[in-house]
Every structure is written in structure tokens, then in C-alpha cells.
Structure prediction request, 280 residues.
Amino acid sequence: MKNPKVVAIIQARTGSTRLPSKVLMHIVGKPMLWHVIDRLKHCKNVDLVVVASTVKDSDKPVLELAEESGAGTFAGSEDDVLDRYYQAAKKFDADVIVRITADCPLIDPEMVDHLVAYFKNNKIDYFNTGPSFPEGVDTEVFSFAALETSWKKAEKHYEREHVSMYIHGHPEEFKIACIENESDMSDIRFTVDTQEDFIVVTKIFENLYRESQVFHLQQTVDFLKSHPEIAIINKDIVRNEGFISSLKKEGIDINSPDVPCHNWIGKYVLSKKGKQGSQK
Prediction:
């Protein structure tokens, strides 16, 4: 496909159990979701930004905010997130999907562009950031064909709740690649799952945010290194705690080598300099 349509789909809802309605909480005068949309609009390799929420009345403000922010919208299932993504991708004729969550207001558009460029230039079905990156800049890029295959074949509850779990669990069906950072930043949290996370992210925005400009991953990491009193606020939060909890409900041991999310294939190293990445 010569010029595939790349659609960034942000999953967003108000029903978070640990921090309810977090996507609507304000950071430097704007809702968190607004910041996610705004940062993705700076991507050069993304054709459209879409917010995929649910049909619940409580999520109407999410859809209204998305429309006001210039994003496309889709309302679907709350629990079957795989179906929500599939239907949203179909609605907007996506050839390539970038999966983003609305609790990651520090998503880096430069890094997203890098992943999309690599994905388009290589014959792969799925490409994602690995665990050496800070939690909260997580990015997945996959083809509509891979999404459709997952949608048709995924039967387990956790495969429907977590969009890419079927792909990770069946590497024999897909060509998968994973990008790792030059240095291990896995102990840093930029996602917002708790009040402590929200405090940290708010402090970052208060110091680095400038209207109509984007600050990048390295700037954010440098800021935390120079302000350890802020970095320590959320250091004890377990990485991917919600994801681990949902798997445990399914009787899956996250430490088992058979857990689908451990089936990474290949590596790609991104420069930590805040510019374009470099292959190694």
C-alpha cells in the first residue's frame, strides 16, 4: 500500500476505578485528554486523531471534549475494547492504527512519528515500545489486517479487554517488532493512574508546557532528574498494575514465560536525544 491512512486512536473513558474521570482532570488549565489530543496533532506521520470512548452516558463529556478538540469520535463497548478499536478503525478507514491511552498526557509525538515511519518502511504487522521506556509513553502501531485478525479470533476475556493481547499471544501469526530505549528508564512513571501520578505530571507541565509548543521525552526525563523531590512522589506505584490485576483475575501469572505480553520479537533502539531515533 503506497500511502496508508494512519489513524491514532485514543481509548478514553471516565470509569477508572483508581482515579475516576481522570481523563477530564485539568492540567495547566486543560483536561488531560485535551493534552493527549493536542500532542498527537503535532505528529507528522499521523493523518487523523480519533477518541474511542463508550456508549455510557457518563462518557458523553469525553466525546464532547474530543469533538471540541478537533478529534474524530467513536462510541462503543466499555469492556470489549478490541471491538471498540476495530469498529473505530473501520469507521475512519484506517490502514494503520496507532494505539494510545488517554491517561498518557506526555506521549511524545516525535517518538510516535518514528515508530510509524519504521512500521511503514518495514514489512511488519505490529510494532511497539518495550519496557525500557518510561510507563506513559507506551505506543503501539499495527495494521488494520492484524487488528481484524485479532477481532475475529480473540475469544478470551483478557484478549478482548486488552487490544493487542491476541497478537502477543500468537507471534506465529504476525510479524512483530519491539523498540527499546538506549538506556533503561523503566523506573520512571509518566502515566496517570493515581493521585500521586497526577501530581507528578502536573508539576512537569507547570514547568515545561508552553502553548503551541511540544516538549519531548528527554526534556521530561532531564526535568525529573534535576527534581528528585518530584520524581519520588510516585516511585512506589507498580508498573502496569491495572493490567497485571486484570490478568490475575483470569488466573494468569504475570511472571510466567507463557504470558502473551512477553512474546516480543526483535528490537529497535531509539535515541534518547529528543531527536529522531537511530537504528542499532
